[in-house]
Amino acid sequence: MIFEFMEKHSAEFEVRKMAKVFKVSRAGYYKSLNKQASKRSLFNLKLTERIKDIHKQSRKNYGSPRIHAVLKTQGEKCSRRKVAKLMQASKIQAKSRKKWKISHKPCRDMAKISPNRINQNFAAPVPNQAWVSDITYIKTKEGWLYVAAIMDLFSRKIVGLGMSDRIDTDLIRKAFGQAICHRSPEPGLILHSDRGVQYTSNEYKQVIGAQGVVLSMSAKGYCYDNAAMESFFHTLKVEHVYHCNYETRKEAAHSIFEYIEVFYNRQRMHSTLGYLSPVEFEKQMEAVG
Length: 289
Prior knowledge:
By secondary structure, the chain is of the alpha/beta class. It contains ten helices and five strands; from the N terminus they run αααααβββαβαβααα. A five-stranded mixed sheet has the order 3-2-1-4-5, sandwiched between helices.
């Protein structure tokens, strides 16, 4: 206790004078400091190794907030600032972010446009109440791979996925068919998208209507109306696609499916879900309810 007090107040008082007052030796004080430094160094070394393991398991996607959250679940008592400092010292960082932009042809026939029933409310109290969907493009040496996805806003889980070399109605029907098969929603589910010609086609509307699903659409050119899906595609590209060099569409499709089904839905921690994965969040909510 005396040596701890001396260390804490060493900037205010001379060590020589404090040692005299407390009747301890300066050699003993410095020896104690070395022991503390050794313990601290050992702790930092072990913690850094754990951080590296978590970072590797996250496919190098986690930054200090998520790594700190994982450590907390493992019973480790350390601050987020401590984790950030150790990561910086070891040059451990999340994959860098890149800007990206997608665009596909919007429908010009206003009679085919459905009203915006989501209105940027990207929270759902129960599963299968509100889904959002969109299409993005993935570059391969063989040409573009088009990816359509559907997300349940309750858990941010990707419940439907369609991939093709063509951006047409069949692409989004594949994603919708998969989502219906996996979730079996009750009539009244809201399915939100942009105004792309695929989503406004009569063929798509007939398929949707047959399931009792209600369509919702973003305002023209307003990406914030579908921010949840924009965010997902950004995550997909930043954490995975930008770090791959696909030879074929088949290779890209397999890689994207694996990222979504194995990592994103089941392992990746989401800050909006209390640092749980979508599958873990749904299981927890089901147990509570």
